[in-house]
Amino acid sequence: MAGKIYQMVQKIVKERSNGVPMLETSAKTKLLLKGINTANYNPSSEDDEKIIKKLEDIAKEWGISI
Questions:
Q1: Which domain holds residue 42?
Q2: Mean pLDDT (whole number) for 8-19
Q3: What DSSP state is assigned to residue 51?
Q4: 10, 15, 43, 63: least CB-packed within 10 angstroms?
Q5: Quick check: is 66 in a domain?
Q6: Torsion of CA 48, 41, 64, 27, to 10 degrees
Q7: pTM of the prediction?
Q8: Alpha-helix residue ranges (DSSP H) falling in 1-66
Q9: Is residue 52 part of a domain?
């Protein structure tokens, strides 16, 4: 299923930022520091189980259910 990573990234950023643009940038930067470059994923991006697992771990760490 293509695009799962993109959907997960969008949900994490949305939940973390509460719709505040400055916090969106902050959330994306924090993901980048954890090894997830949000610019690399779009709705047609192929899914990688390692990245999905990493996103699940980050979401859990940040208290976000995905």
A1: 4-61
A2: 94
A3: H
A4: 63
A5: no
A6: 130
A7: 0.89
A8: 4-17, 21-33, 49-62
A9: yes
